[in-house]
Amino acid sequence: MKPPRFTRRLGATAVTLLLLAMASASRAQAPACGTLENHYGPFDYRTQRDKLEIVERYHFTPSVESLRAGASTTRLGGDISYLLATSPNHHRGLLAMMRLAEKEKSPHPKNMRYSVDCYFDRAIRFQRNDTTVRMLYAQYLQKQKRTPEALAQLQVASDLAKDNGFTNYNIGLVYFEMGQYDLALAQAHKAKALGFDQPELAQMLTAKNKWKEPAN
C-alpha cells in the first residue's frame, strides 16, 4: 500500500506538533522494560550458544557467575546486564542475577539496567516457549511471596512441556520446593507416565507423607 497523501501542505508549527505527537505515541508503545534490539544478538541460549562464547569469555567469567568480582569492569551487575542484553534467556545469567538480587536484598541489582522482573519479562518476550525461564521466574516470585504469580508461570511451563517427561519432572521439583505437594505429585505421575521414571521426587514426597501411587 502507498502511504496516504496529504491534500494540503502543513505549516511549520503543524509539522512540529505532528512530529511531537508521533514521538509521544512511539514512546507509549515501547515496552516498559525496553526493546530486545541489541548491537550483538539477541541469541537463544538453548540453540545459539556458539554465538555466546565470546560474550561469556569477557562478561560471564567464573568470578562473575559466582558473584565474586566483575570481569570487564569491577561491577558484577554491569557484566550480567551485558550478557542478558545479548541473550535475554541465558539461564545461568538469569540465575546469577537472581542470586545477586538476593545478595543485595534489592529487586534492582546495582549497575543493572533493569529490575529482575524486567529481565524476566524480556526473556519471556524473547522466547515464550522457554520452560526453564518460566521455572526460574517462578522460583524468584515465590521467594518474593508472590505465590499466585509463581503458580501462573509454572502452569504455563507445564502447558509448554507437553510430552517432555524431563521438563515435567523438573516442574514437579519446583512445585515441591514451593510446598505445593499435590501439584508436585501430579507432575511426578505425569513424568513417570511419559517414561521419565526418576525416584528422587517420589522419595521427597514420601518423606513429607505426600506420595501416592498413580491410580490405574
Biggest pleated-sheet summary:
none
Q: What is the percent of helical residues?
A: 55-70%
Give the strand content. under 5%
**How are helices and strands ordered from N to C?**
HHHHHHHHHHH
Any idea what the radius of gyration is? 22 Å
Notes on the structure:
There is one protein chain. The chain is built from 11 helices and no strands. Residues 1-30 have low confidence and may be disordered. Helix content is 59%, strand content 0%.
Pick out its properties.
Serine Threonine Protein Phosphatase 5, Tetratricopeptide repeat; 11 helices; 2 domains; disordered N terminus; mainly alpha; 216 residues; 0% strand; elongated
What's the layout of helices and strands?
Blueprint lengths: L11 H18 L23 H7 L2 H4 L10 H11 L4 H14 L11 H11 L4 H13 L3 H15 L3 H13 L3 H13 L6 H8 L9
What's the gist of this structure?
The protein is mostly helical and 216 residues long.
